[in-house]
Design a protein that fits this description.
Oligomer: single chain
Distance between the termini: 79 Å
Strand order of the largest sheet: 13-7-8-12-9-11-10-14-15-16
Number of strands: 20
Bound molecules: threonylcarbamoyladenylate, magnesium ion
Largest sheet: 10 strands, mixed
Radius of gyration: 26 Å
Structural class: alpha/beta
Length: 510
């Protein structure tokens, strides 16, 4: 019997800025200038790896070059390398521009999988080498390969955008010994398969729950109305409550809005990816269903690496509320989602416990006003250092603009009361549970309690808020007594959630 051929490891090389000089859109052979020493490295590499070249050719979409120009350049590159004794198995290129809503990532997963299937490639032992941070990130987080970032081409300019932990080399020669050091982990492959499955579900109009740094979201293709309708059905959410649209790349903003504002740009530079949602006038193509008939759309780029990889693979903006039944506590683990909505969603991606633990801060741009609609994962003080004093919506007479401002929200099933000193409350007949900020008083004897942060740290308290409330809610108590936390920094978001859980409006609580 024939032994099945072992799959090969491969190296996918970005063309411009990695092998040849980045000279814009190439139309002539004379523009193909190989970096010095590249032939030697490729000869060395091909002893252990199959070689592929990938590139973006957005010039095709923009009309600067044709597909035939690109093919001619590739043919010339292939022949030149062959003369040097180097065999390139395949050339892959993406002809789109950003305006086509293609992010033209290299290594585009589609190409890599095509190559993997056609040439029997083992991606877990394969590498991508290029000079764009995003491409290296896709290799690392999405494809289960190892990405190596080169400081050639665009490399130096974008170095500050490279994720911590990424492998960086001065040039192709320097990457060679690094590749010896790495062997990608097989478990990456299983994780990747799941991400790929999740993105396929979204593209086919399904619903996926995915982790973000704040809480788990319930996602659908933002441009697919039928899929977004299912979100409302699954959550039992009233249609007047709009959905936040999640993106993986700042270029996607232009798919959703034309609005521009210098302070908005500064907020994005400072806080994205991260727990900040911006509400801005929407483009007509954004469905009224997503914005609940409002003329504005909420946009957020989450900071969770799994979320970003998932969103990148979806290649469309993803509308997602928190993955809980309407009005109930937000989920901060995959188990919370499973418990609340399991069976109703097509897939739950498990990314562990959410680091921030409370939802994003929501800011609206309206005329010259910048309005705080919901305190959340970024302290208001930090935002105000860029925007100046925010208008606090709740204290205003403006009509309700964000249904998250409904009086009851984020609630457990159990009744909840907020107090300065919950242990002073005595009621022999009621089964009571306690939520303390940093410590349980010594003289209170109960096993039904949670402490948000023994260190009294507000970030840790936010991280633990919903999971503590979930735990207390599962005890079948008559009442939860929650202690007030300091109303500064992230404490504002925590108090906002506690007040809503208790059905106290901000005006009453201030
Ligand atoms: O951290 C978060 O923001 C999480 C994760 C999943 O990203 N999402 C989240 O979504 O909390 P949701 O739907 O549970 O809460 C979003 C709030 C809602 O209160 C909604 O009314 C408000 O944002 N919102 C969304 N779009 C809006 C819009 N166009 N205008 C005003 N408010 C909007
Ligand atoms: Mg929610």
């Amino acid at each position: 019997m024939l032994k099945e051929q072992e799959p090969y490891p491969a190296v996918f090389l970005d063309r411009d800025g990695t092998i040849i000089e980045d000279n814009g859109y190439l139309k002539q052979k004379s523009q193909v200038l190989f970096y010095p020493g590249v032939f030697d490295v490729l000869r060395e590499l091909q002893k252990n790896f199959k070689l592929f070249i990938v590139s973006n050719q957005s010039g095709i979409s923009k009309g600067f070059i044709t597909v035939d120009d690109v093919k001619m350049i590739h043919q010339y590159t292939k022949e030149t390398l062959l003369k040097e004794g180097i065999r390139i198995e395949g050339f892959y290129f993406c002809p789109h521009a950003k305006e086509d809503a293609c992010f033209c990532i290299k290594p585009k997963p589609y190409f890599v999988f095509k190559a993997a299937a056609a040439y029997n490639i083992d991606l877990t032992r394969s590498f991508f080498i290029g000079d764009h941070p995003q491409d290296v990130e896709v290799a690392d987080f999405v494809l289960g390969m190892k990405g190596i970032y080169l400081l050639t081409g665009h490399g130096r300019k974008h170095r500050h955008q490279v994720k911590p932990g990424a492998e960086i080399a001065d040039n192709l020669q320097a990457a060679l010994p690094m590749m010896e050091k790495f062997r990608s982990k097989p478990e990456n492959r299983a994780a990747f398969e799941k991400l790929l499955q999740a993105s396929r579900i979204i593209r086919q109009g399904g619903i996926v729950s995915f982790p973000t740094e704040t809480v788990y979201g319930l996602g659908a293709d933002a441009f697919n109305e039928k899929a977004c309708t299912r979100i409302f059905e699954i959550k039992d959410r009233p249609s007047f409550d709009p959905l936040i649209v999640h993106i993986s790349n700042k270029d996607q903003i232009s798919l959703l809005t034309d609005y521009q504002n210098e302070k908005m740009t500064r907020l994005i530079e400072r806080f994205w990816p991260g727990p900040l949602t911006l509400i801005v006038p929407k483009k007509p193509r954004v469905s009224d269903l997503v914005t609940a008939g409002l003329p504005n759309v909420g946009i957020r780029m989450p900071a969770h690496s799994l979320a970003l990889s998932f969103l990148k693979l979806c290649a469309c903006p993803v509308a997602a509320p928190s993955a809980n039944p309407f009005g109930y506590l937000s989920p901060t683990t995959a188990a919370h989602v499973e418990q609340q909505l399991g069976g109703k969603v097509d897939l739950i991606l498990d990314g562990g416990a959410c680091a921030v633990g409370i939802e994003s801060t929501i800011i609206q741009f309206k005329g010259d006003d910048i309005i705080l609609l919901r305190p959340g994962g970024i302290p208001i003080e930090e935002i105000e250092s860029i925007t100046g004093k925010l208008i606090h919506h709740e204290k205003n007479t403006l009509k309700v603009e964000s249904p998250g401002q409904l009086k009851y929200h984020y609630s457990p099933r159990t009744k909840i009361k907020i107090m300065d000193n919950p242990s002073a409350y005595r009621n022999q007949d009621a089964k009571v549970g306690y939520l303390f900020f940093s410590e349980k008083p010594q003289d209170l004897y109960t096993e039904h309690y949670e402490i948000l942060s023994e260190k009294g740290d507000l970030a840790e308290a936010s991280h633990n808020l919903f999971s503590s409330l979930h735990k207390l809610d599962d005890l079948g108590l008559d009442l939860i007594l929650a202690q007030k936390v300091p109303s500064r920094g992230l404490g504002r978001g925590i108090m906002n959630r506690l007040n809503k859980a208790a059905g106290i409006s901000e005006e009453e609580s201030i």
